[in-house]
Design a protein that fits this description.
Layout: E1 2-6, E2 9-12, E3 17-24, E4 30-38, E5 45-51, E6 56-58, E7 66-71, E8 76-81, E9 90-101, E10 104-109, E11 113-118
Parallel strand pairs: 2-11
Antiparallel strand pairs: 1-3, 3-8, 4-5, 4-9, 5-6, 7-8, 9-10, 9-11
Length: 119
């Protein structure tokens, strides 16, 4: 599975952005997808996840502001980000949990897209 993010950029505080993650390859083996982010000098952390059944989970810091979704027909996942804050500035990574067999599970990552929120 290959993942390609897009949609990052520079936005003012209070603004909005929508990130996209296009998956290709053996997408039928994807069991869950998610967004993670890494700010300068910090570890990569969870933003939001979504299962193949549509169940979602969010980090407390983004609840009520960010919405994760996926379009299975387009093999694309989205992250709608509203009310952005300077502390949301980070490189955002797309992640997919892939199970090519019952006994195997691997995680794939995209290359990341930079989101910068100015104050």
């Amino acid at each position: 599975v290959q993942l390609v993010e897009s949609g990052g950029g520079l936005v003012q505080a209070g603004g909005s952005l929508r990130l996209s993650c296009a998956a290709s390859g053996s997408v039928f083996n994807i069991v869950a997808m998610g967004w993670y982010r890494q700010a300068p000098g910090k570890q990569r952390g969870l933003v939001a996840t979504i299962t193949s059944g549509g169940s979602t989970n969010y980090a407390d810091s983004v609840k009520g502001r960010f919405t994760i979704s996926r379009d299975n027909a387009k093999n694309t996942m989205y992250l709608e980000m509203n009310s952005l804050k300077p502390e949301d500035t980070a490189v955002y990574y797309c992640n997919a949990g892939v199970a090519p067999s019952v006994e195997a599970y691997v995680e794939e990552w995209g290359q990341g897209t930079l989101v910068t929120v100015s104050s």
